[in-house]
Backbone:
């Protein structure tokens, strides 16, 4: 890899550039309108990167079909369900609350806090949908 003036990149810059390129192409797979084009993009991704980054391609292909499950749902839901961000945020909020409490006296109190964290999250989303419809 070279700079615009044909000077070679430093190794760490070349590595960063390659990581950016492979990540960008991987993200584009999930921008496909349906499962079939996504699988076609995967095949192109493999062709483009197999020789340069065989380990990365192998890891990316592992259980790949499971990452396309969101295509089985209505298109309007795709951006919400194709990542685990929402779930990770719920668990982070629960951990924060449980750290504030310290130790739960019994399982029911733990489940109650978990339920309340989820209820609060649902209330946030309900407010957003009401605001959109107003």
Residues:
């Amino acid at each position: 890899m070279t700079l615009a003036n044909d000077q070679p990149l430093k190794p760490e810059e070349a590595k960063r550039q390659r990581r950016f390129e492979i990540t960008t192409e991987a993200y584009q797979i999930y921008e496909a309108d349906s499962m079939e084009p996504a699988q076609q993009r995967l095949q192109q991704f493999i062709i483009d990167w197999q020789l340069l980054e065989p380990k990365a391609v192998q890891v990316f292909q592992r259980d790949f079909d499971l990452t396309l499950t969101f295509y089985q749902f209505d298109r309007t839901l795709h951006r919400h369900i194709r990542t685990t961000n929402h779930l990770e945020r719920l668990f982070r909020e629960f951990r924060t609350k449980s750290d504030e409490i310290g130790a739960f006296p019994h399982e029911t109190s733990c489940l109650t806090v978990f339920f309340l964290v989820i209820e609060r999250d649902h209330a946030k989303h309900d407010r957003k949908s009401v605001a959109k419809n107003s």
In short: The chain has a mean pLDDT of 86. Residues 11-81 form one domain. The chain has six helices and no strands.
